[in-house]
């Protein structure tokens, strides 16, 4: 039953479909596929397969699905999944119905109330990963190896930290996206989570005061040592020092962060790829950077979202408890 999610959007069929030239029809289907990010589509397909498997095991129809079926499905999920995962599973169901012209069962009151009850029972609070603060980054840089893998790892975490990049943005960068100036690096971010249409934006990375932790010098060193002149900026490397043509994945970024956090004496379980981005916002807030300047670098469109990091970074900058003379 994964077919409906092969094309997200209206199914090109019905009356008049036989008079549409097939090349144009296929092009329309391709544009429909491109309307959502590939990672989103993969998630929908996986979640839809899970729902179909559950329906099959219970002798129920997944398409069209009855509201009672969906409510029972998410109720059973509540015994083994977090609320966020249940919501994600639920999101795939209306997409499949929409793709085949069916009304979504998820709008029914029974489904909404079941989900509301799950949220109230399980709670929605998440345990975010810890931000890598400036001192953490310094310790992680010192913990890198002296070989080519170490050079790449230093470049990865320093650029991720300085540019406040998401892990998907980091691994999506090409060498052509990097323009070196006299005292700066300009990175062109062609697409991101909040820019699926590819309008793009430029991010400035200034030289660091310390050559050992300067993101610009480190990126230059990585490019020189890797010998790469085009294609993905960050790539996998064999233990024999051979640089692959293909780029890293988002999971690879998380693995590098966790590896270096562990070497630096930090609790690796508390850190992941997002720690670099969160660390930039939090560290900048600690240093007194303005809300606007932080948002310019992170690309946040939501003020409340970036203020979460700013609040964390401001906890001890002007803390009244420090004035108590204890």
Write the layout of secondary structure elements.
Layout: H1 22-33, H2 38-58, H3 67-77, H4 83-99, H5 109-122, H6 134-142, H7 148-163, H8 167-171, E1 178-180, E2 184-189, E3 201-206, H9 215-226, E4 235-237, E5 243-247, H10 250-263, H11 274-286, H12 291-298, H13 303-314
Antiparallel strand pairs: 1-2, 2-3, 4-5
Plain-language structure description:
The chain is mainly α. It has 13 helices and 5 strands. It has helices at about 20-35, 40-60, 65-75, 85-100, 110-120, 135-140, 150-165, 165-170, 215-225, 250-265, 275-285, 290-300, 305-315; strands at about 180, 185-190, 200-205, 235, 245. A 3-stranded antiparallel beta sheet has the order 1-2-3, covered by helices on one side. The protein has a two-stranded antiparallel sheet with strand order 4-5.
What descriptors fit this protein?
326 residues, mainly alpha, three-stranded antiparallel sheet, two-stranded antiparallel sheet
